[in-house]
Write a structure and sequence with these properties.
disordered N terminus, eight-stranded antiparallel barrel, elongated, mainly beta, single chain, 12% helix, Porin
Amino acid sequence: MLRSLTFIVLLCLAPSLYGQSKKLPKRPKSPFNAGIIAGMNSSQLDGDYQSGYDKHGFSGGMQSTVFLNPALDLSIDLLFSQRGSKADSGSGGQNRVVNIHLNYAETNFLLNFLASRYEDGLPKFHIQAGLSYARLLSHRVKTFPYNNRVLIATLSERSSFTEIADHFNSDDFGVVGGAALHIGSHFTLSLRQNFSLKLLFNQEDIPERNNRSIRSFFIAIHGTYLFLNPYGKKKK
């Protein structure tokens, strides 16, 4: 409900934000744009007995954009995306459980709401919200011997992560929220949070064991280079 209300508020605010500046062109000269996008994911898995966004991986591919009006556009990302979780090496490695490496083909559908502009009227800051779909391409699991006695007792009642990996869901659906800063007419920096709506592993898939379900979270930092300048050259 909170996400829906936030989305509605942003949608209502977008036209009023546009009205704050008369210098912004009524419509970009080109209704479309495309570019290359690259960056990194910092991810974690809820349910792996570990915490922290410690798993870092590459994220990159292509982006296409459709300008709906001067204050709103739709972007679609086609990405190769690495996620998962990483064991905590602190405390002498006593709490290390598992490393999980996940490779995805990911598609993001994002609405970008104009929040502020530069003095010349060009976009400066966008708020982003949307949905994502990803397909699991491959995975790799590495478990560690347990030194923590409490953890040993807990895990003895559950399946091994190697067994759980055989039941990983191939499809992932998520919600995305973030912000993008425009630097000039061609380059953008963005920060996004992705929350998976679908479990990576559902405990009901192995009903005879007392497993935890696993869900994915990750933060993505991207730099995007756009091929075109939709607003044309600046007037001297």
